[in-house]
Fold each of these.
Amino acid sequence: MSNKKLRRVGLSQELCDRLSRHQIVNCQDFLGLSPLELMKVTGLSYGGVQELLYMVSRACAPQMQTAYDIKMRRSAELSPAFLSTTLSALDKALHGGVACGSLTEITGPPGCGKTQFCIMMSVLATLPTNMGGLEGTVVYIDTESAFTAERLVEIAESRFPLYFNTEEKLLLISSKVHLHRELSCEAVLQRLESLEEEIISKGVKLVIVDSIASVVRKEFDPQLQGNIKERNKFLAKQASLLKYLAEEFSLPVPDQI
Ligand SMILES: Nc1ncnc2c1ncn2[C@@H]1O[C@H](COP(=O)(O)OP(=O)(O)O)[C@@H](O)[C@H]1O
Ligand SMILES: [Mg+2]
């Protein structure tokens, strides 16, 4: 993935610091420069720069894998394969819950409960693993200003009264859900592009986008010529960013339509 940070592709700290002083922070910034420009910035020889270019492009280009590799990698993963929804019929239909390491779309008419479901999944992801949770934090990207901390606490208290029996536990859960209000397509994309570091540093185990449809509806009128193409471009880009994050960090990523 071209927005992968150079620090994560095996370059030395010193080299990363030097590059970041020239606003070269991710693979895309690096690969967009010519060998000559890179020689100037890094102070390396032509051969040294070629080696780096090879290393960086290998790190961000999707590698060929066989179906067998994927199957073996999945079965060797220590993280759980699903985050249970705690709704037995839904878990059964989903073969265990919302899949970790992949993108799940939640669709339905307005008012059917998509946002309530996402808030409930946020509670579940913060629970200890012995209660079926992921013991992590959550990134909640809210494009409709629909999320409220009060509702999160209310759902936590009513679903797990024995666990959330103190004020501290309720405060702790609200500090584990990191809310980003992004009100345009561009802002959503920018947030997704910069999420990698937050996922690592804050121990994020669930990423939610609630909802993609509302920003798309606001910005792309399907009646106008050219809009469908632009809309599809945005949807494809955000889906590929979310898929990358889900696969790279083995996260469940519900994305509301
Ligand atoms: N704070 C709340 N307490 C109780 N019910 C709520 C609350 N907020 C929303 N609801 C109800 O939950 C239902 C689903 O709402 P919501 O999840 O926002 O729908 P969607 O995201 O699918 O449009 C609605 O019928 C709404 O009245
Ligand atoms: Mg909603």
Amino acid sequence: MPKSFDKGFRWVTDPSVQVEDTPETSQESQEPETSQESDAAPKGPVQGTGMPADQGTVAAWRPARSEPVINFVDSLIATAVNEGASDIHIEPREKELHVRLRIDGVLFKKPAPPIKMHPAVISRLKILANLDISERRLPQDGRIRANVSGKQIDLRISMLPISHGEKCVIRVLDSHAISVGLDQLGMSPGTFEAFRSEILQPHGIVLVTGPTGSGKSTTLYSALQVMDGATLNICTVEDPVEYDLASINQVQVHESIGMTFAAALRSLLRQDPDTIMVGEIRDEETARVAVQAALTGHMVLSTLHTNDAPSSITRLVDIGIEPYLISAAVNGALAQRLLRRICENCKEPMTTVPESTAVYLEKHNVEPRQLYCGTGCEVCRHTGYKGRIGIYELLVLNEELRDIITHNPSLGDLKAASKKQGMHTLRDDGLQKAFQGHTTVEELIRITES
Ligand SMILES: [Zn+2]
């Protein structure tokens, strides 16, 4: 796997490789390529879905089809997929090009080709994604389907003009990564059982909350897989539909033509649904339809952007839903974050804890216990971490909490009541996972205290 990357990069320092003129200078003299020439062009493992452009109906600059450029793009995508990156950043600076991969939530710099190669790399990606290669002043979005090591990978491309050219960010949508069983997300046995029981209720709303990148979608998809698609009508409203799910009806939101979350949700209710997954509740209209759906006998799963589970209740009040409706409709809320896992290959018991860890434990009155860390090795790129584990805070609404919510409590009161009813906070779960040797307190601080 790093092999293909190395191979793709040999040319960067190889003086025998000539980089052709940048598109700016060669554009006018360049004829549109015929499909015959296109066929003769070197082809890597990455093939675009944008077939018309790839076959020459759109003029393509020759530099974008030069072997080094194709090799670079192919090997970059292959490396990203093989190293489990979620995003690829190609960033033009004044004098150099930066290439970074986001792995386990953190950006890592990678070797990059010379800046003069940048326009050709961008053109190559635009051709693959069937975007307009002559448009360099407006943002563009597209998709590429790639075949990497026999795996079908979808890539979402975002082009944004910045000071020194177009910045490209590629989101890697690995459908294998989302087909994770609910029991493999890292929930403690108690949380797992309680969450599973909530989503299998015949009706109600279950919310998953957390900031962007906290793994909410994966949890929702895992939850849908627990349900029986053969006997239930399971529908989703998403923006965008990123992954294709078997035996589930997925609806794409198109705000520009009036197909909003709320409009799609209303139509879905006329489609005899059992379970509805709404990508996100961010306005009163969507929240209101979701509540009505739950109160009329449907199970609704959705996400909110709040920091903790009790806040999802007060957020719904802020959006404009009456507390008595929330109390009646919502079954529970799960707050979550993703923490990096300690690399199993270099994990060791800590002999001394970092000062910030000691301060954190003392601040929260936690008795110090044995902690672990990764010392760094080849496997984890010398970070001490490999992969991620979720930490969870599940609020289940029992009769007492429903009664309290009806009286529109302050967030502080609701938090206190939730803890009194036995809710374990994100911190409790994170500390437990640190003491179990899955992650570190440093990581818990980094993710939850920032
Ligand atoms: Zn390691």
